[in-house]
Amino acid sequence: MRTLFAGGVVFVGGRFCRADLLMEETRVMAVDRGLDRSDVDRVVVCEGRVIAPTFIDLHTHLRYPGVDEDDDPTSIARAALVGGYGVIVAMANTQPPIDRVERWREANSLFATLPIEVVQAATVTLGREGHRLVDFERLVDAGVEIFSDDGSGIQDSSVMRQALVASAEFGVLIAQHSEDAALAAGGVVNDGVAADALGVASIPEVAESVMVARDIELLKGIPGRLHLQHVSARESLNLFRQAKREGLRISAEVTPHHLLLPDTRVLGGDTRFKVNPPLRSVPTQMALLQGVLDGSFDAVATDHAPHPDSRKRGSYQEAAFGMVGISEAMPATWTALWRTIESGERRKLGSDLASPEWIALGRLLSCLTSGPAEVLGRSIRLAPQARADLVVIDPSAEPREIPSRWYRSGNSPYRGEMLIGRVDDVFLAGRQVVDEGEVVDA
Ligand SMILES: [Zn+2]
Protein backbone atom coordinates (compact mmCIF):
# COMPACT_ATOMS: atom_id res chain seq x y z
CA MET A 1 0.00 0.00 0.00
CA ARG A 2 1.49 3.31 -1.16
CA THR A 3 -0.07 6.55 0.08
CA LEU A 4 0.88 9.98 -1.17
CA PHE A 5 0.25 13.04 1.00
CA ALA A 6 0.16 15.64 -1.74
CA GLY A 7 0.33 19.41 -1.89
CA GLY A 8 0.85 20.15 1.80
CA VAL A 9 3.56 21.59 4.00
CA VAL A 10 5.77 19.03 5.79
CA PHE A 11 7.35 19.74 9.18
CA VAL A 12 10.83 18.21 8.99
CA GLY A 13 13.61 18.78 11.48
CA GLY A 14 12.01 21.88 12.98
CA ARG A 15 11.32 23.51 9.59
CA PHE A 16 8.46 23.69 7.14
CA CYS A 17 8.87 22.75 3.51
CA ARG A 18 6.36 22.53 0.69
CA ALA A 19 6.62 18.90 -0.32
CA ASP A 20 4.73 15.67 -0.90
CA LEU A 21 5.29 12.73 1.39
CA LEU A 22 5.20 9.15 0.17
CA MET A 23 4.38 6.43 2.68
CA GLU A 24 4.71 2.72 1.89
CA GLU A 25 3.37 0.18 4.39
CA THR A 26 4.84 1.25 7.77
CA ARG A 27 7.54 3.64 6.52
CA VAL A 28 8.10 7.06 5.04
CA MET A 29 9.66 6.50 1.62
CA ALA A 30 10.21 10.01 0.30
CA VAL A 31 9.67 13.67 1.12
CA ASP A 32 10.07 15.80 -1.96
CA ARG A 33 8.35 18.19 -4.33
CA GLY A 34 6.17 16.86 -7.12
CA LEU A 35 6.34 13.15 -6.30
CA ASP A 36 4.79 10.87 -8.93
CA ARG A 37 1.07 10.27 -8.34
CA SER A 38 0.60 7.60 -10.95
CA ASP A 39 1.98 4.68 -9.01
CA VAL A 40 0.20 5.09 -5.65
CA ASP A 41 -2.86 3.41 -4.12
CA ARG A 42 -4.20 6.49 -2.36
CA VAL A 43 -3.72 10.24 -2.51
CA VAL A 44 -4.43 12.32 0.61
CA VAL A 45 -4.92 15.89 -0.60
CA CYS A 46 -3.14 18.17 1.86
CA GLU A 47 -3.60 21.64 0.33
CA GLY A 48 -3.52 24.16 3.16
CA ARG A 49 -2.62 21.48 5.68
CA VAL A 50 0.53 20.47 7.54
CA ILE A 51 2.04 17.00 7.91
CA ALA A 52 4.02 16.52 11.13
CA PRO A 53 5.24 13.65 13.31
CA THR A 54 2.67 12.40 15.84
CA PHE A 55 2.77 14.23 19.14
CA ILE A 56 4.40 13.16 22.41
CA ASP A 57 2.76 14.06 25.73
CA LEU A 58 5.19 14.12 28.64
CA HIS A 59 2.41 14.37 31.21
CA THR A 60 -0.73 12.21 31.16
CA HIS A 61 -2.66 10.75 34.06
CA LEU A 62 -3.77 7.35 32.79
CA ARG A 63 -5.35 6.51 36.14
CA TYR A 64 -4.16 2.90 36.13
CA PRO A 65 -4.16 1.36 38.65
CA GLY A 66 -7.01 3.51 39.98
CA VAL A 67 -10.10 3.57 42.13
CA ASP A 68 -13.62 4.68 41.07
CA GLU A 69 -12.50 6.11 37.73
CA ASP A 70 -14.82 6.77 34.78
CA ASP A 71 -11.98 6.93 32.30
CA ASP A 72 -9.54 4.09 31.81
CA PRO A 73 -6.37 3.67 29.73
CA THR A 74 -8.43 2.59 26.70
CA SER A 75 -10.68 5.66 26.66
CA ILE A 76 -7.77 7.97 27.44
CA ALA A 77 -5.67 6.44 24.66
CA ARG A 78 -8.49 7.12 22.17
CA ALA A 79 -8.79 10.72 23.35
CA ALA A 80 -5.02 11.01 22.91
CA LEU A 81 -5.20 9.66 19.36
CA VAL A 82 -7.83 12.26 18.47
CA GLY A 83 -5.41 14.86 19.82
CA GLY A 84 -2.70 13.61 17.46
CA TYR A 85 -0.60 11.76 20.04
CA GLY A 86 1.41 8.61 19.37
CA VAL A 87 3.30 8.50 22.66
CA ILE A 88 2.25 9.49 26.17
CA VAL A 89 4.16 9.47 29.44
CA ALA A 90 1.93 8.12 32.22
CA MET A 91 2.36 9.63 35.66
CA ALA A 92 2.98 7.39 38.65
CA ASN A 93 0.59 8.96 41.20
CA THR A 94 -1.83 6.09 40.71
CA GLN A 95 -3.65 4.15 43.40
CA PRO A 96 -1.50 2.43 44.51
CA PRO A 97 1.48 4.44 43.21
CA ILE A 98 3.95 2.91 40.74
CA ASP A 99 6.87 2.72 43.16
CA ARG A 100 8.10 -0.83 42.53
CA VAL A 101 9.01 -3.04 39.60
CA GLU A 102 6.02 -5.39 39.91
CA ARG A 103 3.49 -2.56 39.59
CA TRP A 104 5.40 -0.96 36.76
CA ARG A 105 5.46 -4.28 34.87
CA GLU A 106 1.79 -4.91 35.50
CA ALA A 107 0.83 -1.49 34.14
CA ASN A 108 3.04 -2.03 31.10
CA SER A 109 1.49 -5.37 30.27
CA LEU A 110 -1.93 -3.70 30.11
CA PHE A 111 -0.62 -0.76 28.07
CA ALA A 112 0.88 -3.13 25.51
CA THR A 113 -2.69 -3.67 24.24
CA LEU A 114 -3.27 0.05 23.59
CA PRO A 115 -2.98 1.59 20.13
CA ILE A 116 -0.46 4.21 21.35
CA GLU A 117 2.88 3.87 23.10
CA VAL A 118 2.86 4.49 26.84
CA VAL A 119 6.05 5.39 28.71
CA GLN A 120 5.19 4.64 32.33
CA ALA A 121 6.99 6.75 34.93
CA ALA A 122 7.83 5.47 38.39
CA THR A 123 7.69 7.52 41.58
CA VAL A 124 10.87 9.04 43.01
CA THR A 125 10.01 8.09 46.58
CA LEU A 126 8.36 5.08 48.17
CA GLY A 127 4.62 5.54 48.40
CA ARG A 128 5.18 8.99 46.85
CA GLU A 129 5.63 10.15 50.43
CA GLY A 130 8.79 12.16 49.82
CA HIS A 131 10.98 10.44 52.41
CA ARG A 132 12.86 7.46 50.99
CA LEU A 133 13.98 6.86 47.40
CA VAL A 134 12.54 3.96 45.42
CA ASP A 135 14.91 1.20 44.30
CA PHE A 136 16.32 3.05 41.29
CA GLU A 137 18.64 0.20 40.33
CA ARG A 138 15.88 -2.40 40.03
CA LEU A 139 13.47 -0.02 38.31
CA VAL A 140 16.07 1.16 35.80
CA ASP A 141 17.02 -2.48 35.12
CA ALA A 142 13.36 -3.16 34.38
CA GLY A 143 13.31 -0.27 31.89
CA VAL A 144 12.08 2.85 33.73
CA GLU A 145 13.34 6.08 32.12
CA ILE A 146 11.42 8.74 34.06
CA PHE A 147 10.85 9.22 37.76
CA SER A 148 8.32 11.68 39.18
CA ASP A 149 6.36 12.19 42.37
CA ASP A 150 3.91 14.32 40.35
CA GLY A 151 0.89 15.36 42.34
CA SER A 152 3.23 16.84 44.90
CA GLY A 153 6.72 18.26 44.98
CA ILE A 154 9.61 16.63 46.83
CA GLN A 155 9.82 18.85 49.90
CA ASP A 156 12.95 17.43 51.54
CA SER A 157 16.03 19.00 49.91
CA SER A 158 18.21 16.08 50.93
CA VAL A 159 15.86 13.57 49.28
CA MET A 160 15.77 15.70 46.12
CA ARG A 161 19.53 15.85 46.09
CA GLN A 162 19.74 12.05 46.38
CA ALA A 163 17.24 11.75 43.52
CA LEU A 164 19.40 13.94 41.27
CA VAL A 165 22.47 11.89 42.20
CA ALA A 166 20.53 8.73 41.24
CA SER A 167 19.52 10.44 37.99
CA ALA A 168 23.21 11.00 37.21
CA GLU A 169 24.22 7.49 38.22
CA PHE A 170 21.53 5.71 36.18
CA GLY A 171 21.10 8.19 33.32
CA VAL A 172 17.39 8.76 33.95
CA LEU A 173 15.17 11.82 34.24
CA ILE A 174 13.73 13.33 37.42
CA ALA A 175 10.52 15.22 36.65
CA GLN A 176 9.48 17.58 39.38
CA HIS A 177 6.06 19.01 40.27
CA SER A 178 7.58 22.15 41.76
CA GLU A 179 5.45 23.21 44.71
CA ASP A 180 6.45 24.25 48.20
CA ALA A 181 3.81 22.60 50.37
CA ALA A 182 3.94 25.22 53.12
CA LEU A 183 3.49 28.13 50.71
CA ALA A 184 0.70 26.32 48.86
CA ALA A 185 -1.04 24.95 51.95
CA GLY A 186 -4.81 24.99 51.64
CA GLY A 187 -4.67 27.05 48.45
CA VAL A 188 -6.95 26.31 45.52
CA VAL A 189 -6.58 29.26 43.09
CA ASN A 190 -4.07 31.90 42.02
CA ASP A 191 -3.51 34.74 44.46
CA GLY A 192 -5.08 38.09 43.61
CA VAL A 193 -8.52 38.51 42.01
CA ALA A 194 -9.40 34.81 42.03
CA ALA A 195 -8.68 34.22 45.71
CA ASP A 196 -10.31 37.52 46.70
CA ALA A 197 -13.50 36.88 44.72
CA LEU A 198 -13.99 33.30 45.89
CA GLY A 199 -12.78 33.97 49.43
CA VAL A 200 -10.42 30.99 49.35
CA ALA A 201 -6.72 30.51 50.05
CA SER A 202 -4.27 30.81 47.16
CA ILE A 203 -1.29 29.02 45.66
CA PRO A 204 0.95 31.96 44.75
CA GLU A 205 3.50 31.76 41.93
CA VAL A 206 6.32 31.84 44.47
CA ALA A 207 5.16 28.47 45.85
CA GLU A 208 6.43 27.08 42.53
CA SER A 209 9.43 29.28 41.78
CA VAL A 210 11.01 28.82 45.21
CA MET A 211 11.25 25.09 44.57
CA VAL A 212 12.50 25.63 41.02
CA ALA A 213 15.25 27.87 42.46
CA ARG A 214 16.17 25.23 45.07
CA ASP A 215 16.27 22.39 42.54
CA ILE A 216 18.46 24.38 40.16
CA GLU A 217 20.87 25.05 43.03
CA LEU A 218 20.88 21.31 43.85
CA LEU A 219 21.51 20.41 40.20
CA LYS A 220 24.67 22.52 40.05
CA GLY A 221 27.56 20.09 40.35
CA ILE A 222 25.43 16.98 39.78
CA PRO A 223 25.31 15.67 36.21
CA GLY A 224 21.70 14.52 36.63
CA ARG A 225 18.76 15.58 34.48
CA LEU A 226 15.90 17.65 35.86
CA HIS A 227 12.59 18.28 34.10
CA LEU A 228 10.23 20.99 35.35
CA GLN A 229 6.60 19.94 35.05
CA HIS A 230 3.70 22.31 34.25
CA VAL A 231 5.63 25.58 34.71
CA SER A 232 3.11 28.30 35.61
CA ALA A 233 5.14 31.09 37.21
CA ARG A 234 7.05 33.91 35.54
CA GLU A 235 10.02 33.56 37.87
CA SER A 236 10.21 29.78 37.28
CA LEU A 237 10.61 30.48 33.56
CA ASN A 238 13.30 33.13 34.20
CA LEU A 239 15.23 30.78 36.49
CA PHE A 240 14.90 27.96 33.95
CA ARG A 241 16.23 30.13 31.12
CA GLN A 242 19.20 31.18 33.22
CA ALA A 243 19.95 27.57 34.21
CA LYS A 244 19.84 26.50 30.56
CA ARG A 245 22.23 29.30 29.63
CA GLU A 246 24.59 28.05 32.32
CA GLY A 247 24.57 24.63 30.68
CA LEU A 248 22.66 22.68 33.31
CA ARG A 249 20.84 19.56 32.13
CA ILE A 250 17.36 20.93 32.60
CA SER A 251 14.16 20.93 30.54
CA ALA A 252 10.65 22.30 31.07
CA GLU A 253 7.07 21.90 29.94
CA VAL A 254 4.08 24.24 29.93
CA THR A 255 0.43 23.20 29.63
CA PRO A 256 -2.13 24.33 27.03
CA HIS A 257 -4.51 25.46 29.79
CA HIS A 258 -1.95 27.75 31.42
CA LEU A 259 -1.34 29.30 28.00
CA LEU A 260 -4.99 29.77 27.02
CA LEU A 261 -7.06 30.24 30.15
CA PRO A 262 -6.54 33.14 32.61
CA ASP A 263 -7.33 32.95 36.33
CA THR A 264 -10.48 35.04 35.83
CA ARG A 265 -12.14 31.86 34.49
CA VAL A 266 -12.54 30.64 38.06
CA LEU A 267 -14.59 33.66 39.16
CA GLY A 268 -17.92 31.91 38.52
CA GLY A 269 -16.84 29.05 40.77
CA ASP A 270 -16.86 26.49 37.92
CA THR A 271 -14.75 23.62 39.26
CA ARG A 272 -13.72 22.55 35.73
CA PHE A 273 -11.12 25.31 36.05
CA LYS A 274 -9.69 24.03 39.33
CA VAL A 275 -6.21 22.76 38.55
CA ASN A 276 -2.82 22.60 40.20
CA PRO A 277 -0.82 24.70 39.59
CA PRO A 278 -3.75 27.10 39.26
CA LEU A 279 -4.62 29.22 36.22
CA ARG A 280 -2.56 32.42 36.39
CA SER A 281 -2.94 36.13 35.59
CA VAL A 282 -2.90 37.46 32.02
CA PRO A 283 0.62 38.98 32.37
CA THR A 284 1.95 35.59 33.48
CA GLN A 285 0.15 33.91 30.58
CA MET A 286 1.82 36.36 28.19
CA ALA A 287 5.23 35.54 29.70
CA LEU A 288 4.60 31.80 29.33
CA LEU A 289 3.47 32.25 25.70
CA GLN A 290 6.69 34.17 25.07
CA GLY A 291 8.54 31.17 26.52
CA VAL A 292 7.00 29.01 23.76
CA LEU A 293 7.58 31.58 21.01
CA ASP A 294 11.24 32.18 21.87
CA GLY A 295 12.00 28.46 22.11
CA SER A 296 12.65 28.40 25.86
CA PHE A 297 10.15 25.64 26.65
CA ASP A 298 11.04 22.15 25.48
CA ALA A 299 7.51 20.85 25.51
CA VAL A 300 3.82 21.59 25.70
CA ALA A 301 2.45 18.84 27.96
CA THR A 302 -1.20 18.33 28.83
CA ASP A 303 -1.36 17.21 32.47
CA HIS A 304 -4.51 15.42 31.24
CA ALA A 305 -6.25 14.44 34.47
CA PRO A 306 -9.66 12.77 34.22
CA HIS A 307 -11.95 12.80 37.25
CA PRO A 308 -15.43 11.32 37.62
CA ASP A 309 -18.06 14.04 38.13
CA SER A 310 -18.43 13.03 41.76
CA ARG A 311 -14.92 14.31 42.49
CA LYS A 312 -15.44 17.65 40.72
CA ARG A 313 -18.73 18.37 42.50
CA GLY A 314 -19.13 20.57 45.56
CA SER A 315 -17.50 23.86 46.43
CA TYR A 316 -14.35 25.18 44.82
CA GLN A 317 -12.53 24.29 48.02
CA GLU A 318 -13.77 20.68 48.04
CA ALA A 319 -13.52 19.71 44.35
CA ALA A 320 -10.50 17.79 43.07
CA PHE A 321 -7.67 19.49 41.18
CA GLY A 322 -7.28 18.59 37.53
CA MET A 323 -8.74 18.84 34.04
CA VAL A 324 -8.78 16.78 30.86
CA GLY A 325 -7.63 18.21 27.54
CA ILE A 326 -5.50 15.80 25.54
CA SER A 327 -7.88 15.86 22.53
CA GLU A 328 -7.80 19.67 22.37
CA ALA A 329 -4.14 20.31 23.21
CA MET A 330 -2.98 21.41 19.75
CA PRO A 331 -5.95 23.70 18.93
CA ALA A 332 -6.00 25.15 22.47
CA THR A 333 -2.31 26.05 22.37
CA TRP A 334 -2.52 27.26 18.77
CA THR A 335 -5.44 29.51 19.67
CA ALA A 336 -3.44 31.01 22.53
CA LEU A 337 -0.45 31.62 20.26
CA TRP A 338 -2.65 33.18 17.55
CA ARG A 339 -3.91 35.74 20.00
CA THR A 340 -0.35 36.97 20.57
CA ILE A 341 0.19 37.47 16.85
CA GLU A 342 -3.24 38.64 15.76
CA SER A 343 -4.67 41.13 18.17
CA GLY A 344 -7.98 41.43 16.32
CA GLU A 345 -9.43 39.71 13.26
CA ARG A 346 -8.17 36.26 12.65
CA ARG A 347 -7.05 35.36 9.18
CA LYS A 348 -5.73 32.27 7.50
CA LEU A 349 -2.08 31.34 7.56
CA GLY A 350 -0.41 33.10 4.65
CA SER A 351 1.81 31.53 2.02
CA ASP A 352 5.07 32.93 3.40
CA LEU A 353 6.59 30.13 5.50
CA ALA A 354 8.91 32.69 7.16
CA SER A 355 6.03 34.83 8.50
CA PRO A 356 5.48 35.23 12.28
CA GLU A 357 2.45 32.92 12.26
CA TRP A 358 4.35 30.10 10.56
CA ILE A 359 7.27 30.61 12.95
CA ALA A 360 4.81 30.38 15.86
CA LEU A 361 3.31 27.19 14.42
CA GLY A 362 6.81 25.77 14.08
CA ARG A 363 7.51 26.51 17.75
CA LEU A 364 4.28 24.81 18.74
CA LEU A 365 4.98 21.72 16.64
CA SER A 366 8.52 21.51 18.04
CA CYS A 367 7.01 21.59 21.55
CA LEU A 368 4.67 18.74 20.59
CA THR A 369 7.18 16.57 18.69
CA SER A 370 10.97 16.97 18.66
CA GLY A 371 11.15 18.86 21.98
CA PRO A 372 9.49 16.18 24.14
CA ALA A 373 11.29 13.50 22.08
CA GLU A 374 14.63 15.00 23.14
CA VAL A 375 13.51 15.07 26.77
CA LEU A 376 12.93 11.32 26.36
CA GLY A 377 16.34 10.93 24.71
CA ARG A 378 14.82 10.18 21.31
CA SER A 379 14.92 11.85 17.96
CA ILE A 380 12.05 11.93 15.49
CA ARG A 381 12.07 13.18 11.94
CA LEU A 382 9.83 12.65 8.94
CA ALA A 383 12.61 11.42 6.66
CA PRO A 384 12.92 8.40 4.37
CA GLN A 385 12.92 5.10 6.30
CA ALA A 386 11.42 6.70 9.42
CA ARG A 387 8.38 4.90 10.83
CA ALA A 388 5.26 6.53 9.40
CA ASP A 389 3.85 8.03 12.62
CA LEU A 390 2.30 11.23 11.36
CA VAL A 391 -0.53 13.69 11.72
CA VAL A 392 -2.25 15.87 9.14
CA ILE A 393 -3.38 19.10 10.75
CA ASP A 394 -5.34 22.06 9.47
CA PRO A 395 -3.93 25.12 11.27
CA SER A 396 -6.40 27.44 9.53
CA ALA A 397 -9.54 25.50 10.48
CA GLU A 398 -12.26 27.92 11.55
CA PRO A 399 -12.74 28.45 15.29
CA ARG A 400 -15.02 25.75 16.67
CA GLU A 401 -15.67 23.67 19.73
CA ILE A 402 -13.66 20.43 19.56
CA PRO A 403 -16.05 17.56 20.31
CA SER A 404 -14.56 15.66 23.23
CA ARG A 405 -16.75 12.61 22.91
CA TRP A 406 -13.91 10.29 23.87
CA TYR A 407 -13.84 11.63 27.39
CA ARG A 408 -16.02 9.90 29.94
CA SER A 409 -15.01 12.48 32.52
CA GLY A 410 -16.75 15.84 32.25
CA ASN A 411 -13.92 18.05 33.48
CA SER A 412 -12.90 19.62 30.16
CA PRO A 413 -12.14 23.35 30.49
CA TYR A 414 -12.53 23.67 26.69
CA ARG A 415 -16.25 22.88 26.59
CA GLY A 416 -17.85 25.89 24.89
CA GLU A 417 -14.43 27.23 23.85
CA MET A 418 -13.95 28.22 20.21
CA LEU A 419 -10.56 26.87 19.15
CA ILE A 420 -8.60 27.46 15.96
CA GLY A 421 -7.07 24.58 14.03
CA ARG A 422 -7.67 20.88 14.17
CA VAL A 423 -6.02 17.49 13.95
CA ASP A 424 -7.61 15.85 10.89
CA ASP A 425 -5.84 12.52 10.38
CA VAL A 426 -3.45 10.37 12.39
CA PHE A 427 -1.35 7.48 11.08
CA LEU A 428 0.64 5.13 13.32
CA ALA A 429 3.19 2.91 11.58
CA GLY A 430 1.37 3.68 8.35
CA ARG A 431 -2.05 2.63 9.63
CA GLN A 432 -4.75 5.28 9.75
CA VAL A 433 -6.21 5.50 13.26
CA VAL A 434 -7.96 8.89 13.04
CA ASP A 435 -9.86 10.11 9.97
CA GLU A 436 -11.30 13.65 9.94
CA GLY A 437 -11.09 13.81 13.72
CA GLU A 438 -12.76 10.42 14.29
CA VAL A 439 -11.07 7.29 15.64
CA VAL A 440 -11.38 4.71 12.87
CA ASP A 441 -9.24 1.73 13.77
CA ALA A 442 -8.01 1.56 17.33
ZN1 LIG B 1 1.68 17.97 38.87
TrEMBL record:
Any one GO MF annotation of this record: allantoinase activity
Gene3D superfamilies in alphabetical order: Metal-dependent hydrolases, Urease, subunit C, domain 1
EC number: 3.5.2.3
Entry keyword Heme: no
GO cellular component terms given for this protein: cytoplasm
Domain of life: Bacteria
Role this protein plays: Catalyzes the reversible cyclization of carbamoyl aspartate to dihydroorotate.
Name of the protein described by the UniProt record: Dihydroorotase
Source species: Ferrimicrobium acidiphilum DSM 19497
Species classification: Bacteria, Bacillati, Actinomycetota, Acidimicrobiia, Acidimicrobiales
